[in-house]
Amino acid sequence: MNFDRLIRDRERLFWTLNIGAWLGYAIAAWLGALAYEKPGSYIDVIVATALIGFVISIVMRHLYRRLWPRGPVAVVVGIIAICYGLGFIWRLASNTMYFNWVKDSWQPESMMGYITGIMGSFYVLLCWSGLYFGIKYYQQMQEQTERALAATAAAHQAQLKMLRYQLNPHFLFNTLNAISTLILDRDNETANLAVSRLSDFLRYTLDNDPMKRVTLGSELGAIDLYLEIEKVRFGDRLIVRKEVESGALDALVPSLILQPLIENAIKYAVSPSEDGGTLKISAKVLNDMLLLQLADNGPGLGNGNAQKKSCGVGLKNTRERLQQLYGDNQAFTLAPNDPRGLVITINIPYETEENVESANS
Question: Are 344 and 319 in contact (CB under 8 A)?
């Protein structure tokens, strides 16, 4: 974590690397002086040269900040000119100190003696420049990547929320219409019960983020609230059965993943029939996958109903939500029920809160 903070803090990273680089330069020069048995006064030249190089690198940094926004050709030409010009000054100062401190004020015969080794200084500064621009370019690429990932994540979240919330107005309209009918029929007790269940269900939808997953037990509790609201409309015409393994109740599922499927089944299998219909909700764990099924005894895929069921908003949004959340590691299928009706099957990875917490720790 400390290393990650250092990488993200540009100012701190620069000073850490720059101080470390010039300390390394001084140590390398000192080891070379020991190998060639230079006099003790040469150490003073090494320290002074490293300090001058450190100051020059700070000047280069300010110059490169002005150079950075320009085009590639201007940047390359500018780097070469800056490195050569400052390398000239650096070498001149280093040789002057060497002549005065080590050679006891000895002076070379020509001015060329003062700039001997200028190409070495030029290459050192050029290497420093390469590292500076390389690190700066890497940081910029990282920031662009993080911004792109953040934008993608925001779009991903917005799409998931849109897919789930798109269903609420349709459901709310049907429920309020049913409550209005009950009030007109003066069935105030049933209307009050429907309003109470609607309030509980809407509170659940608002308290649970579409991006977060809930346990299947919690999801089924919300579905019970929804079904109680629908039973206000259909009464005994709506029959619901459940076959849920105990081990499946702890599985994590997208919040309200079943509600649009049940709404779709009620619309096509229960509502059109005078006798109503039966919905069967089942869940079990199979080979590290959670198998969810919703079966009805409606017209199924026949009688021209296939297109309606395949293109319904509820089924389409559920399929897209699963694709967004699990990618290819999921399955959403429609199949005929026996002897009649439709079976919707969802396969998603079996995960629990304990498994997710241990994986993230």
Answer: no
Range of the domain at 96: 2-153
**How far apart, in whole angstroms, are the C-alpha atoms of residue 196 and residue 283?**
28
The string of pLDDT tens digits covering residues 241-253 is 999 998 899 999 9
**Residue 113 resides in a domain:** yes
The answer as to whether 158 is a domain residue is no
- Angle (CA) 147-149-151 rounded to 5° is 70
Q: Tell me if 84 is assigned to some domain.
A: yes
Q: How far apart are CA 119 and CA 71, in angstroms?
A: 26
- Residue 245: phi and psi, rounded to 5, are -65, 145
Please tell me the pTM assigned to this model. 0.56
Residues 322, 234 share a domain? yes
Structure tokens at 101: 């401190």
Strands (E) across 247-300 are located at 252-254, 277-286, 289-296
Tens of pLDDT, residue by residue over 44-73, are 999 999 999 999 999 999 999 999 888 889
